[in-house]
Predict the 3D structure of the following.
Amino acid sequence: MLCLCGPSGSGKSTLLNLLGLIERTQVGELFFDGDVALHDISEPDANLIRRTDIGFVFQSFHLFEVLNAYENVAYFLNRLGLKASEVKERVEFALNAVAMWEHRTKKPLEMSGGQRQRVAIARALAKNPKVIIADEPTASLDQKTGENIMKVFSELNREHGLSLVVSSHDPMVLDYCKNQVRLRDGQVESVTGVLA
Amino acid sequence: MNLIFALRNLLRHRRRTLAVVFTVAFGVGALFIFHGFNTGVMNQYRDNTVRSRYGHAQVNSIGYRDQVFEKPWEHWIEDPDALVAELKTLDGVEQVFPRMNFFALLTNGEITVSGRGQGVDGKEESKFFNTLNVEIGENLNTQVEGVLLGKGLATALKAKIGDRVTVMANTVHGSINALDFEVIGVFHTGSKDFDDVVFRVQLPLAQELLDTHAVEAVSLAFSKVEDWDRVNHQFGERLKEYEITPFEVLDKIYYKHSVDWLQSQFGIIQSIILVIVFLGIFNSISTSIFERKQEIGTLRANGEGRWDVFKLLCVEGGILGLIGALVGLGIGVLVTHTLLGGGIFMPPAPGITRQFHVFIELQASFALYAFTLGAGCALLSTAIASLKVVRMDIASALRSV
């Protein structure tokens, strides 16, 4: 689990967007999964990588209000063309992993902020991605709920071997991440952990 | 899943969805009713022409209508009974009316005015020519010596029902002849040129007045107005020594020109309605799509291509269009049979001097056109608005409020 940290305006979100192919690089090179050159990728290929290899967790959840928790997680799986049985299996696994299976029939507006973020994590997790990118995942939550979310991330990282790149300037989040890249004004200020 | 997602999206924002549905419905309903109104007006014009003056078509000897003759009666139909018998055998012809027109002087002893007489088969014609609009007295039927006067002519003669009127005319041999008639009614077709000069008497008396057995023309009543092509085809094969002319050519000035003029006007108004409807739909749909930028950003971030998102939005727009168009047709039918069930009382139309009632005549063929147009407008508006949103970069869409 890697954390991009630094003050507001340091470039955390921009770097995350570049890593997640949400924005395109203007200069420099960016490689994914060893040898996939993200700086030189076509739009359909970028769509495919975002669809299958990257899970996103946003600060403001971005769940579909019209769908319940189960359907929110299942939505992009259905778009992958998976069999119904596999979709069900993956959704159940993901919602159980974030302790939201009990609340699977609730719609986002019937959930607390923490529950919504758990469903967002489950949605990202269910895709079985190579990496989950989480942009300020605790910023909209209170301290206790935020900590619970970080515990979920740690558990997924530890027990399921999931790679996570998280951005935050919250000290609580940093406590959960041994690997940190500190940014300031768009430049790397310091690196700690295995990358150092 | 896409369809469920689209339907739920529509249900989520009920007020917005209803606004779009009713914008489409209003447009489709307005077009549907407006076209029904146009049809009603056109049919009024047509009926006024067909059932007050010409019938559906008229038969003359060849070339008779193309030129002015010094002695037109020399070109009249000499054996009308044979022609009438033949015409009655044509498939599509319901009734046959031998006729003659002639110029005459009418006098009541004090006032003398000129007029144009029509010698007709009163009994037969009274069954078909029912829009003469007899305002006073009764229509010419079996009354042997009866004369039916146009409103202007009756006013000029100060004629009342039961008055005696003498009609003087030149016989076909050049001498003067006169016959006495009794005023039985006054008609008011609404066409001033017609009502000011025309009077109707029984054909045998007109023939006696002009001292001839011939008739000038034979008018025809079809089973329905669409029978023209069928009748014309048979006529061309079997009656080569005569010519047949449809009512819209016989009454080119009043009917054809008026209808052409009105249709152009209606076309312009219809275009204006279409533009207003399109702008209304476009505005509602654009607003609803622009409010969903974040959602679209989420879809794109999770790997949905621009085309996938575009299709999803178009499915929603299409559903709205289909529902709105259906509701619009329903509104059209409902309004026509309730609020407008009694017709609309109209001021005199161009070429007509009397007011008339127009009934909305909804057309099934136009319903399909209006439905397609409404649904198509919704789809096109969605496509235009969606193109702008799906072109946005993902980060901007996600940041949108």
Observations:
- The CA atoms of residues 107 and 166 of chain B lie 5 Å apart.
- Chain B has a mean pLDDT of 89.
